[in-house]
Structures are given as structure tokens and as C-alpha cells.
């Protein structure tokens, strides 16, 4: 119990002295995670759509070649960035681009570090989102695509008006999952000098050597950010689901009968205006055939 008391005291001392530094690191983490997730979703959306453009052997050869090349490029991009650690991607982009360009392309200053970090996290997120979007698109019932084409919609119209709205709703949980992952994975950007929450912890520990109390603050901070993000994402899902209580309009007979089939002799159950006409038609059929079907 004494150890816990000592831990709480040390955490309080660190927070009292370095509160502004910790909060600044948390702010950088949130901003980077939000921006990278948004850009990554755009990249993934574009890649997912390009990867699902349909083609058949009856299409022109140039179209088939272009689509096959696009799919190959997307596949290589996804496999490379999903199959390598983000920390190595950061090192490769931040140090590799100046190496291969002889210094003509370099990330200089604090703005350069921000740009490199945003580029790395966004591209990495886009690789994961590309597969999520592709899965969301192919999860939609093919009958909806066929129905859209049957009424004359083009592929672009079908995607924008029928498929994508449903697919995006289906992948909202995965978008939220990637956002929460990015909150945590931005911690590896310290290797290129980006000062986020974890880098703040390393700097503070380097000054006072109170590693575990500072790590406790880090754990509480990351958990707080991820819990708030989870709550907001679940709220967004609930709003997108809409109301779960639907009532049919039964007060207006015109609304109830709109679009219903009209029997030649019975009309609709709500139609009273043509009763005489239907009676005359029934009488005429009876005189012609001797009896109605119901009387046989």
C-alpha cells in the first residue's frame, strides 16, 4: 500500500510540474491522429473504389489493361504498407527521401517533421482503409447494383447513390478502430523527432529519471483519449442508424392506396368514388356470362 501512495505522490508531483508539456503532447497526438485518419480514409476510399471497378472480357482491351495495372499498383501499395512496421516506414520516408534525392527532398524544421509524420501515418492508414472500403463495397447485395443498372444508372451513379452510402455506414466501426490505433501508433513518430504524447514522456524522464510515474501518466492519458474516441464513435453510429421506431401512415386513404393495384371490378379497398361504375361493370359481366365467377 505504501508503494501505491508513493506512486500517487510522484504522479502528482510530475503532473504539477509538467502538466503543460503533457497536455501539449496529448494535443499533438489528437491532431495528428485526426488528420491522418481523415486523409487515410480518403486514400482508402479512392483505392477501394478503383479496386472494385468491374470489367469483363467483352470490354475494350485498353480498359482491361488499365484496370489490371491499377489493381496491381493498389495491391502492391496495400501489401507493402500493411506488411512493414510504421516505425520503419517513418525512417524510410524521413531519411530515405533525402538519401535518394541527394538532399533535394528533405523535411526541415518542425513543419517538416509534422509533414513527414502526417505523410507516414496517413499512407499507413490508407493501406488498411483500402481493404476495408473494398470489403464494404463487395458486402452490398449485388442485386442492388443490378437493379440500379436496370433503371439506367451508370456505374458512377450506382456507386455514389446506392453502394457507397451503405458501404461507408458498414465501415464506420473500422474507421473508428483505425482512429484509435492512430492515437496509439503516433508514439512511434518520436524516431523522427515528432513531439507527441510519448515523446513528451521520454523527454521528461530524461530530466528527472522518474520513469514509472511518468509511464503511469501516459497510460491514463492514452486510455482517456481512446475511451472518449470510442464513446464519440458509438454516438456517431447511433446517429447514422436513425430511428428504430417506424409508423405507417394510416390516416390518409390516398397515402394508403398510392401505387396499389386496381382490380378492374373491385378497385381498391379505399376507393368509394367509382362504386357505381364497378357495379355496372359487374352487372354487364353477369348479363353476358349468365353469372359471375363468385356465383358459379
TrEMBL record:
Residue runs in coiled coils: none
Biological process annotations from GO: amino acid transport
Subcellular location field: Cell membrane
UniProt feature, compositional bias: Polar residues: 286-296
Disordered: annotated span: 259-296
Major subcellular location class: membrane
Domain ABC transmembrane type-1: start-end pairs: 26-233
Topology of this chain in the membrane: Multi-pass membrane protein
Regions that span the bilayer: 30-55, 76-100, 112-130, 179-199, 211-233
SUPFAM superfamilies, sorted: MetI-like
Entry keyword set: Amino-acid transport, Cell membrane, Membrane, Transmembrane, Transmembrane helix, Transport
Gene Ontology MF terms in the entry: transmembrane transporter activity
Biased composition (Basic and acidic residues): 269-282
GO cellular component annotations of the record: ATP-binding cassette (ABC) transporter complex
Family: Belongs to the binding-protein-dependent transport system permease family. HisMQ subfamily.
UniProt xrefs under PANTHER family: GLUTAMINE TRANSPORT SYSTEM PERMEASE PROTEIN GLNP, MEMBRANE COMPONENT OF AMINO ACID ABC TRANSPORTER
Protein name (Swiss-Prot/TrEMBL): Amino acid ABC transporter permease
The organism of origin for this protein: Candidatus Avoscillospira stercorigallinarum
Amino acid at each position: 500500500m505504501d508503494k501505491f501512495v508513493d506512486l500517487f505522490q510522484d504522479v502528482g508531483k510530475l503532473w504539477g510540474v509538467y502538466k503543460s508539456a503533457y497536455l501539449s503532447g496529448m494535443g499533438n497526438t489528437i491532431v495528428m491522429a485526426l488528420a491522418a485518419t481523415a486523409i487515410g480514409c480518403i486514400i482508402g476510399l479512392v483505392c477501394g473504389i478503383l479496386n472494385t471497378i468491374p470489367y469483363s472480357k467483352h470490354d475494350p482491351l485498353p480498359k482491361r489493361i488499365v484496370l489490371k495495372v491499377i489493381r496491381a499498383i493498389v495491391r502492391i501499395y496495400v501489401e507493402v504498407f500493411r506488411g512493414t512496421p510504421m516505425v520503419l516506414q517513418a525512417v524510410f520516408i524521413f531519411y530515405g527521401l533525402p538519401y535518394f534525392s541527394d538532399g533535394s527532398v528533405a523535411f526541415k524544421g518542425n513543419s517538416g517533421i509534422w509533414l513527414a509524420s502526417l505523410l507516414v501515418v496517413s499512407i499507413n492508414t490508407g493501406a488498411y482503409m483500402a481493404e476495408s472500403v473494398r470489403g464494404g463495397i463487395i458486402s452490398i447485395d449485388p442485386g442492388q447494383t443490378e437493379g440500379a443498372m436496370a433503371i439506367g444508372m451508370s456505374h458512377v451513379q450506382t456507386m455514389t447513390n446506392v453502394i457507397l452510402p451503405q458501404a461507408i455506414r458498414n465501415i464506420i466501426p473500422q474507421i473508428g478502430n483505425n482512429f484509435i490505433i492512430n492515437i496509439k501508433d503516433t508514439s512511434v513518430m518520436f524516431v523522427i523527432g515528432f513531439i507527441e504524447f510519448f515523446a513528451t514522456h521520454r523527454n521528461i524522464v530524461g530530466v528527472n529519471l522518474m520513469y514509472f510515474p511518468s509511464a503511469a501518466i501516459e497510460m491514463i492519458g492514452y486510455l482517456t483519449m481512446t475511451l472518449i474516441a470510442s464513446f464519440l464513435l458509438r454516438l456517431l453510429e447511433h446517429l447514422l442508424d436513425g430511428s428504430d421506431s417506424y409508423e405507417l401512415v394510416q390516416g390518409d386513404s390516398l397515402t394508403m392506396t398510392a401505387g396499389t393495384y386496381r382490380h378492374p371490378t373491385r378497385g381498391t379497398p379505399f376507393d368509394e368514388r367509382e362504386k357505381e361504375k364497378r357495379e355496372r361493370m359487374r352487372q354487364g359481366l353477369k348479363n353476358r356470362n349468365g353469372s359471375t365467377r363468385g356465383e358459379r
